[in-house]
Structures are given as structure tokens and as C-alpha cells.
User: Fold this.
Amino acid sequence: MSKMVLGVLASGRGSNLQAILDAIDAGRLSAKIGVVISDNPDANVIKRSIEWDVPVVCIERKQYESKEAWETAIADELNVHQAELVVLAGFMRILSPYFVNRLSGRVMNIHPSLLPAFPGRNAQEQAVNHAVKVSGCTVHFIDEGMDSGPIILQEAVPLEEGDTPETLAERILHVEHVLYPRAIGLYCEGRLKVEGRRVTILEKGEGTHEN
Ligand code: GAR
Assistant:
């Protein structure tokens, strides 16, 4: 069976992109990255994509008059590369309902908290300031809200005495790098059944595109 084509949207460092590339390289994830799109010309993720010989395009918001025109350019680029699943990997802009509906059910995000706790920016700082004992990360489909779409996978990460937002972010990031490729793999195998906001993980062999 042919490999599912991923389109990755990223704004910064690109360690999650790296984790996805590593998982593909190691044979743990049967997928192919069709294109990486960044909104930030200085993003490290652009450098990483070039090093890995992955097609990369920068589509800056400021080049477009409206948000819809910018999002249309992104969606068109994803189409050109025949992306079947869109993976947000540290993409720091909110996508409008126009984009969400255009790519309905085909966009995943990773967020560094146990949603619905601490949505939005600086999730790790929110967790430290709230003095919770446990935070973590969540992979979810996007919907029209802020980090509110159907949850695919979550994993808890304990806070430790003296944690700063940075130390917590680092500990969560290690878990993200395992969780995201796993969630993408489940999608690629057709093992995610979405009913309303409930995502059921089908047994191996029950999926619609096993490979
Ligand atoms: C990751 O921690 C990711 O969960 C977070 O940004 C970081 C990106 O790191 N995303 C969000 O906060 C989205 N709301 P990376 O560029 O090294 O993958």
C-alpha cells in the first residue's frame, strides 16, 4: 500500500518534525513527508527540512492581505504536494474556521499540556504557575476552537520541585517526540474512528488502511 503523505506546518525549532522524520527513517512510521510549510522565514525547521531533503516552503502571513488569502495559499500548497494529513508541529498561529472546514478531520496538533487544561500559548508556564502536580501533552484533531478538538492521545508528565517553564517544557518535549509519531501512525493505519468529539482507537487489523 502506498505511504500516506503528510504536510507539516511549523513555526520554530522543529524538534517534533525531527521526531517524525526519525520515526519514518527507523521504520516505526509508515508515511512520507510531502511538504513542510513555515510561516517564519527564520525558523530552524526550514534548516532541518533542507538537511533532510524534504520540500519546504515559507508562506508568511504579511505577504497576504487577508488571513483567508494566506490560509488559501497554505491549503493550495498542501494540495500541490497531495498532503493527506496535515500535522501542526509547533505552528504558532491560530487557523480560522475557513481553513479548519476546508481540511475537515485531516489536521492534527500537539499541545504541551493535558487538555482541556492550559490551552493557548505558554502552556508549560501556565502549568508551573498553577502549581499542578501533573501536566503532559495531548495530540488532537483541530476544530474551530482553541486547542479544543477531539483528543487522540495524551500522556502525563509529573512536575518536579523547582520546575521552571523551561525544565517542564523539556521533560514534556521528550514525551511529545514519542506520542506524535504514534498518533500519526494510528491515523495512517486508519485506526482512528471519530464520532463527535470521541476518538476510538481501533485494534490493529480493524483499521481501514493497514500497511
Ligand atoms: C512543542 O512543545 C509543541 O507542543 C508546542 O510548541 C513546541 C514546538 O516545538 N506547540 C504549541 O504550544 C502549540 N500550541 P518544536 O518546534 O521543537 O517541535
Notes: The longest strand covers residues 31-38. The pocket of glycinamide ribonucleotide is lined by residues 10, 12-16, 89-90, 110-112, 123, 173, 176 (CB under 6 Å). Strands lie at 4-10, 31-38, 56-58, 85-88, 107-111, 134-141, 151-158, 192-195, 198-201. The mean pLDDT is 96.
